[in-house]
Every structure is written in C-alpha cells, then in structure tokens.
TrEMBL record:
Name under which the protein is recorded: Uncharacterized protein
Keyword Coiled coil: yes
Alphabetically ordered keywords of this record: Coiled coil
Regions annotated as coiled coil: 13-96
C-alpha cells in the first residue's frame, strides 16, 4: 500500500509538473502575443494619426476649394446677369431697327403718291 501511495503521489507530481510546464509555455506564448499586439497597436496608432492628419489637410483643401467655387459661382451669376441685360438691350435695338425699317418702307411706298401730288 505504501508503494501505491508513492506511485499515486509520483503520478500526481508528474501531472502537476506537466501542467506547470504547459502553463509556463502558455504564459510565454501569451507574453509574445501581448508584445506583438502592443507593437501592432503602436503601429496602428501611428497610422491613425497620419491618416487623421491627411484627412484634416484634405478637409481644409475642400473648404478652401468650396470658398473658391463659391466666388466663381458668384462671378458666373454676375456674368449671366450682364449677358441677359445685353440680350434685352439687343432685342430692344432689333425691335427699334424693325420699326424704323417699316417706317422707311411705308415712307418709300408713299413717295410715288407724294410725287404725284407735288
């Protein structure tokens, strides 16, 4: 019986030693993973800062471009307004020319009658 107890104790000690070794291996692997993940986190943090900076720069460029676009849009509206005014003036001038031409034609058609009267 003493031998059996000794064997059981020996087996239990071996199992405990194997578990300790396995836990030590798991601990080392976990430490490596933590180190790897910490490095990955640091890299991602740096990339995130760079991307945020680029995003800020692009946002600023967009805002500047929007301001320029707004100015150009106002210029276009002003030019269109001037164009419409000039088109209206041209239409008035064309109408006046047409009236004058009609008056000249009327007068020209009446010239023979006036000549007979004179």
């Amino acid at each position: 019986m003493n031998k059996e107890i000794k064997d059981v104790c020996f087996r239990n000690a071996k199992k405990s030693k194997d578990k300790i070794n396995q836990m030590q291996t798991d601990l080392e692997e976990t430490e490596r993973n933590i180190t790897r993940l910490s490095e990955q986190k640091r890299t991602l943090t740096i990339e995130n800062k760079e991307l945020q900076q680029k995003l800020d720069e692009i946002t600023e460029e967009i805002n500047e471009g929007s301001g320029e676009f707004s100015g150009i849009k106002k210029e276009i509206a002003s030019l269109q307004e001037k164009e419409n005014k000039l088109k209206g003036e041209r239409l008035d001038a064309d109408n006046n020319v047409s009236k004058m031409e009609k008056s000249v034609e009327d007068a020209a058609s009446k010239i023979p009658l006036w000549e007979k009267e004179v």
